[in-house]
Amino acid sequence: MHGAMLMPADPELVAAMKQLLVELRPEERSQPWSIMGLSGKTFTLEELVKEVEADSDVGRAVMRTIHFVEIKRLMGRKR
Amino acid sequence: MSPFVLMVANRADQATEITYAFSQYVKDYVLTHGIEGSYLGDSDATPHQVGRGLALMPWGFFHWDHGDRETLYGEWTDNTIVAIVDVSVAGLLRGCIIDTCSCLSAAELGPEAIKKGALAYLGYNEITYVSADEETKRVMNTAKIALLDGKTAGEAWQLQHDAYGEPSRCGVARLVRRILGQDVLDALRSLRDALTGRVVNVLAQYFYSWNQSHWVLLGDANARRPS
To answer: Which of B78, B88, B110, B143 could form a disulfide with B121, with the two C-beta atoms 3.0–4.6 Å apart?
Structure first.
């Protein structure tokens, strides 16, 4: 169950994500998420940021997600 | 086509614990609204039982489970995850409207199912993010509930697409977006957050936006539950 495209970690983005975690409410930080297709496990946002930092497949999927959404958002604004 | 919906949800790991809870929400809706349905959950989500259910030609096939580009998964009775439908037997979905929260399956299985006679396929062509909160459960079940209410596949797809953009039930936000557009809504939200010191959970928003971008409809947008 894989076949997803992934993207390596970006240290600046990891730093920004860590800052965000500090600012979020505890219940948001500890909310469990799962990435269907990559892992049968759940991850809190804190754990997801650790996965990004460790440059794991799950972390790379999160990186790709952030880049994809940002590029799409910028393209939408351009139009 | 038979007048019932076949619902399949496994419960084999932490991820499917979340989607299993999603399935309970729709199962309860089916029961409380007097809709004809068959539910194969947890250790009942076996290839054998699903195959038997599909042979009865339900109008709808709702799936909460893992997937990949070519496959929808269920489980054996020992919790092992196992394929229940893949591209080699996509014809099993003939005559169905399929709605699945599985990852990736709309990439290859979806088109093949349509080619083999499925009416419509609502799903994701990429990995999908799921979370155990009530809001995500509501958003990710939006199309299924709409189909049960008699909406067309196209209407159901649109409602879920829009639900991803509204991670709250705020009517004012909906109105602003409809009349003034998403950019104005974003600007007003930014202003509110700046004034109130609210920190936006942008990571959750990224996950929602990702799901929204990869939520697709294949086949006949006018297909609907038989009346």
So the answer is: B110
pLDDT digits (tens, 9 = 90+) for B172-209: 777 777 788 777 877 787 777 777 777 678 888 899 99
User: Residue B32 half-sphere exposure, CB side, CA atoms within 13 Å?
Assistant: 7
Is residue B192 within 8 Å of residue B200, measured between CB atoms?
A: no
How far off is chain A from B64, nearest CA to CA, in Å? 10
Long-range contacts for B180-188 (Cβ within 8 Å, ≥24 apart)?
A: B183/A77
Give the Cα separation of B115 and B205 in Å (integer). Answer: 34
- Which residues from chain A sit within 8 angstroms of residue B17, using beta carbons? 42
Our CA angle for B170, B139, B217, nearest 5°, is 120
Predicted TM-score (pTM) of this structure: 0.89
Residue B137: partners with Cβ closer than 8 Å, 6 or more residues away: B21, B22, B25
Q: Which residue has the tokens 């994809």?
A: A68
Interface test mutation site (partner A, options B190, B203, B209, B213, max chain A beta carbons within 10 A): B203
End-to-end CA separation in angstroms for chain B? 12
From the list A24, A66, A69, which residue is nearest B201 (CB)? Answer: A24
Q: Which one of B66, B102, B131 has the shortest CB-CB distance to A31?
A: B131
Distance, in Å, from the CA atom of B137 to the CA atom of B84, rounded to the nearest integer, reads: 23
**A37 vs B contacts (CB less than 8 Å):** 66-68, 102-104, 127-128
The predicted complex's ipTM stands at: 0.87
Highest mean pLDDT among B63-67, B135-139, B152-156, B159-163: B152-156
